[in-house]
Design a protein that fits this description.
about 200 residues; alpha+beta; 2 domains; five-stranded antiparallel beta sheet; four-stranded antiparallel beta sheet; 5 helices; 9 strands
């Protein structure tokens, strides 16, 4: 498939979901041909502007695209840019597809594994020995195939961050302005894509 075909797929998908609100312009971002998940293949990522207050447009401001569209050999997806670059946006799409495919279920805080907090603090100390955890709370918890994937909201040395943990390989994200599940999906997508790259090298 070429870019024109991908753009047609994107417009058809947007028309199904948005009706007459389909944007006039779709920006071609990048094609990915990684097959990070079973059944996933060549995917194109495009961006578009879906809404902008008329007062801002009247001032002549050139707004940036605020949504990504993923189409191709994948389940189509439409999601906000979340301030992510194109590569991270594709990782977010992959992580989302994984969670949907695994039927991830949001759990109650009372389901938090009893040893998850201790493992979290140990990871923080190993990565940042001088770290001072000033605040700590469970932001979201998911059950994925009998495993627990948690996202904690921490304040470390005055800086708010998300930290992914529990049964999920840990990682930090400076994106607390967005919902915690976005950090989790991004993190999972990065892990899945990296694992697929390593397998291709064997």
């Amino acid at each position: 498939m070429d870019w024109q075909q991908f753009e047609t797929l994107a417009r058809d998908y947007l028309k199904q979901h948005l009706g007459h609100a389909v944007p006039g312009e779709l920006r071609r971002e990048r094609m990915f041909d990684e097959q990070p998940l079973e059944g996933e293949g060549r995917t194109a990522l495009l961006s578009c502007l879906l809404s902008m207050p008329s007062a801002i447009l009247a001032r002549g401001v050139q707004p940036r695209p605020n949504f990504y569209v993923a189409v191709g050999e994948t389940e189509p997806g439409l999601f906000p840019t979340y301030d992510l670059g194109v590569d991270d946006a594709y990782s977010l799409h992959v992580g989302t597809r994984f969670m949907v495919g695994m039927r991830a279920a949001r759990l109650e805080p009372s389901d938090e594994p009893p040893d998850a907090r201790a493992a979290l603090r140990s990871f923080v100390r190993e990565c940042v020995p001088e770290a001072r955890i000033e605040a700590e709370e469970l932001a979201v918890l998911f059950g994925v195939d009998e495993r627990f994937f948690a996202v904690y909201r921490l304040t470390i040395n005055g800086e708010p961050v998300y930290c992914v943990g529990a049964d999920c390989p840990p990682g930090f994200y400076r994106m607390t302005q967005h919902p915690p599940q976005i950090a989790l999906r991004l993190h999972l997508g990065k892990l899945i894509r990296n694992e697929a790259r390593l397998e291709r090298q064997l």
